[in-house]
Specification:
- With 1525 residues, the protein is mainly beta.
- The protein contains twelve helices and 100 strands.
- A hairpin with a 6-residue loop joins strand 55 and strand 56.
Length: 1525
Amino acid sequence: MATKAVTLQKKHATKISTDYRYHHSKHVVKQHHTVRKSSSKSVNQVQAQATEAMAEPAYTIPVFRQRSSEDIEEYQRVSTHVEKGLAAIQEELHRMRVATKTQVENLAIQREVQEMMTKKVDLYEEVHRLPDFLVALRPHTVWEKTPVKLFCTVQGKPNPIVKWYKGGAPIDPLSAPGKYKIEKKYGVHSLIISRCVVSDTAEYSAVAINQYGTATSKATVTVKRAAGIAAESCHLGLVPHLTEIHPSKLEVTLLEHFKVSFGVEGSSISLVCTMVVVPDLPNVPPIAQWYRDDKLLKPSKLVEMSVGGGAARLTLPHLAKDDEGLYTLRIFTKDGTAEHSAYLFVEDAAPSVAGAPGAPMSVKAYDVNKDYVLVAWKPPNTTNEPLITGYFVDRCEAGSDTWVQCNDSPVKVCKYPVHGLSLGHAYHFRVRAVNSAGIGRPSRKSDKVTAIDPAESERLQVIKLDGKPDIVIKDDDLEGDVTIPGEPTDVHASEIFRSYVVLSWKPPSPRGRAPLWYVIEKCLEGTGAWQKINTAVKLQSPRYPVFDLQDEKSYQFRVYSVNMYGSSEASMPTKPIRKVDEHGSERPVGVPSAPGQVVATRNTKSSVFVQWDPPKHLNNLMGYYIDGRVAGDKQWFPCNHKPFRDTRFVVHGLVPGDTYVFRVQAVNQYGLSDESQESSPISVEPALATPSAPFGITMLSCDGSSITLAWKTPKHCGGSKINAYYIDKRDADTVKWKEVNATAIKERICTIDHLTTGTFYEFMVQAANMAGVGVPSAPSAPMKCEAWTIAEPGPAYDLNFSEVRGHSLVILWKAPVYTGASPITGYFVDMAKKGSSHFVTLNEEAVGHRYLHVTGLEEGESYVFKVRAVNAEGIGKASQASEPVCAEALPGTKEIVCGVDEDSGDIFLSLEACEICESSQFVWSKNYKPIGDCPRVAVTTKGRTSRLSFNAPDKDDLGRYSVVVTDTDGVSASHTLTEDALNSMLELSYAIRHPVIPLKHELNYEILEKGHVRFWMQAMKLSPAASYRFIVNDKEVTSGEGIKISHDVATGVIQMTVDHFTKANEGTYTVQIHDGRAKNQSSLVLVGDVFKAALKEAEFQRKEHIRKQGPHFSEYLSFSVAEDCTVMLVCKVANVKKESTFHWYKDEEELVPETPPNVMSGSCALPIPLFSRKDHGIYKATLGDDRGKDTSLLDVSGEVFDDIINAIAHIAGSSASEMVLQCTPEGIRLQCYMTYYTEEMKTVWKHRDSKIASSEKMRIGGTSEMAWMQICDPSDKEKGHYSIEISDGVKTHTRSFDLSGQAYTDAYEEYLRLKAAAFAEKNRGRVVGGLPDVVTIMEEKSLSLTCTVWGEPTPEVTWFKNEQEVASSEHTKITFDGGKFASLVINKVTPEDSGKYSIHVRNKYGGEFVEITVSVYKHGEQIPEPKLGQPKAVTPAVTPVPPKSPAPPPKTPTPTPHKAPSVKSPTPASTPASTPIPKSPTPTPKSPTPTPKSPTPTPKSPTPPRSMKSPTPPRFMKSPTPPRK
């Protein structure tokens, strides 16, 4: 395929022998386009189109319409010379025809090429494609001042973007409005150049770009001039270089410039420069460009630009440290450019974690591949924070806000390879620094980066055909059918760091068309044991970072190419790779060496110029960080926040007059170098220079032979105090200047003598300082030497300002030299805004002093002032207007502080200046008159602070005091000393000079253990030299036997301890203190009742001390209540031993608890369960051994008893369950379960909010587990809401139940049922007693089974044998006497009479069976073992409703049963086994108490013996009420 392409190219080259650059036209382009669209057209059709194309001229003179006079002249000039070039045009037409004919002959070749390209398009139609030009650019040759249009058609997926270039430089239509026009219509991209000139001759290119690659098409445009007008056409390469933006025709003058600015990360800032534009056309603003560090800025989301309204503005809406740098505004003017530059500093925002590092900056992505990118950044500066230990890199897909951390552990260098990206996806990256304090703020995110294959474009071959579309061939087409790819080549380590190594290689050739990936193997040097390292990742890019290598070992790597068909051979192994050298140093060597000597020199009053020597070892230097600190301070601050490339830097934002020290650190990708040596301390002062020129020369007086002049101070003093002025003069009609004074003039006023009357003179003034004589001022206006004779005064002069604030200032001036015909009586002050000629007089009446406090100013506004003097003759001439003054306080301005010195007691006024220089002086004034040397005050100055102290101040010192700091920008302040303020300070001054030791606590006493008494007081502060003494009853007391006196300087405590406090110690106690000049005293009167109380307490403590020498109670008896309501009497014991005994007593009777008390545990407790009224009494605990005995009493009665009951009630009330309903045969019962209940608790039952008293109708009671209230024989009156209230003395615990509606109906029905069941149980038939269970009898004996029965009505009695009814006979006789006694008599029993006998007793309410087992044995036989029968109960005749709630039987006497023979029941089916056990009608509540027993005593009844069962629940069944846990 490649050979065929070359042949085609050669064939085409031999047949086209003419230069086709001059033969293009729109018709030819149309033909080419048609050929590309449909290659199936016949050659005849194409030849016909070509013939039509040859008939058209290639160049047509444009038709001019509505021409102006200038255009007509131009048209005539061109027409005159057209004839001269006609022959050349015809020759060009001939060549074009020949070229077209040649083109027709090669249509077959083009069709074959077209088919090949169409096949390629079909092959890649459904996949992403690189950009490809379907119609390429054609060269053009045009005449001067005519337009030309370049166009092309491009394809690609996704659709590519086309950018236009001229000579390799981008074309910006805005750079020359109307010159270029770029269009895109229907897939055709075009560039139109209007009114071409010779300089437009160049090579133009269209570059198509999408995320998979780029394609370029180029063409040459040649612009010709008509013959005789200019030289031959200008060819490519001979065009002189033109600026991208042509100079403007506007005149631009910059006015107010933006200054050095300071911002913080995350905030916004605007740089504004005002200007004057002539002419000022709203629609044609001047062309402005902004640069940062000499790089042109373009508008974006982070950079906003605007020009207009007399200002150029640059706004940075989201500041980051990336924005720090030198900003330059360049305005194109008529004469060139006007520029201004200033630095912008961006400091770190507040860290999220204290001490965390700042954000990195300049995050960029390099070496972009399919799934790999190398991210690099610049490290932040660290001054006082811990050192940076590493960085985290985050990525985020474009359009998403979700950031994903790329590295698990911090990377130590400022580069990190990110792999695992998705092909075709766009990403942003950011970086966060880490140190021991935490993770810092993230950097600004990088520009968008798309993961693409950079080798894709390299695999394309472009065959260029002159004047025809380029042929694009992929290497895949030339390789043929390749299945298994070749091996990669040039495997090497492109990045070697301690954290990782990046392997790089070249893709294989051939590689095949199948998708390709790579497998990497490693081995230790010399072992040959290869191991795969990317088994879990399909690596698609020829880059891979390796992280898990050991520092001290060398490795080799090799790479395989793999596709769906198999794997290639291994590449050549790399050379041995080692992360660190044999000395353990990182490869390449890490941070740069420290910079050299640092020198700081003066620059301005708030900046310093710092320069340094570069480090010896640069190691890919990124720049430098400069740090500074105030001399004497240990805290460093960063001077820049972005690495600075040069070795000299201007540090801005310093405090004028302060002294600083600087150091420098070098920066590279490994971090920061060691700090350089510190610079020498330097004071922030302006650089020393000669002063600028004085100005404002004005004439103050003239007597005909002399003129008195005054002038204004130079605006810049040159960093040194001005110490001299020199004046020159000349006649106004001459040129030569003459020196007026050979010796220096100190003041800004001078009288020039020996002048000629009537002559005009000009004057010039120069200022001098220690640096030399400055430049001369501009010549003054001509002044006529003529004597002043006016009656009004002359002008005031030397207007200056003090105490300038946002809304006020003070103006001062000097009196006129010429006073007029009478003395000056006052002054008027006029004011106007800057730029205005409208002056307003500020004072209605003339002021007699030479100053005025002006108020009501607008902050930030500038004003000018004039002063007019007044005498008896009138108002004199106004002074020269002052310089504009802005109503704005200096940054950091402070006011005068008035106070009293804490040590000396002096009253003072003090000012701390916000700026100062070496030559500055503090000038104090009273009522704006310099104080000078005055015995009433003393002025001291130290550093930035000046203090004016008063000596014996009085009313004569009242007034307005002001201070001015010379050689500054107007640092000044004032303070008015009033009489009230002076009096207050005089009182404070007296207190300081005659000090009293302040006391924190007056003299007091306390009783100590052993009965000692401590007298003490506490002063706020005591010095080691303090002295004191104790005086008792007017006698001084000193330390001695029984008395100890001491003090503690640290706490200020002075104390005296009396060991034996007796009645003799009654009296007055005083302490006197002296500490330097300060003194104080405190007294305590200890007599009468106060003394008796103290004496009693001392004696008690003495006895307590003796008691505690043996076993004793450290805490006496007290009580507590446990969660189960058990009352615990507790006490704590101390100083016990094993032999110590402990006993409990109640009312003098010893109590022996189940658990003996253990005194060695330190505490003893006596539990009292189920506490109630019976536990009243006096409890005593005794403790003793051979050392002594101690006793503790607790009277559990009265208030103590009530407190215990309340504590029990609190626990019981909190644990109380909700009320439940329980029905009984007697009525309806409401029950409330709780931990413990006793009648002593304050419990109230309520019905419909009315208190219930216990009665026959309403019975109230309880058990230890619950409280209940029973409604006997309920009726509708008892319906309603019931509640129980348990009070614990603080809180009332309430539980309630609504006994109404369906609840009452169901309860009432259950009550009636239980009542009926109880009645039936009481009156049913039953055997009361008399029958045994087993009877054993010898034959021939008579057997009598007799029992007593009962029932109401009288029951029926039936006897059974073996479940067969027994009839009365001679052998078996049955009797029932009086409805009470039933008997069965068997005469002469035989063995056949053995069996089970039973009696069935029943009436209408029920009955029961009683069984007797009868065994008959013969005479002489062994008596058989008795066998018990199984008693059974009969089914009642009238069976009541099965009970929902069991009830105990009624209370009746029960006769004592005795044994008798048993009889088996004839109805075994009616056994209690068939009777269901009733369930509780209420739910089972959860409770900590055990299952409660029946709340009322179980009534007795004539019950059967134990061997019998009843159809009703027996008494041994559990209560149906819910069990308690």
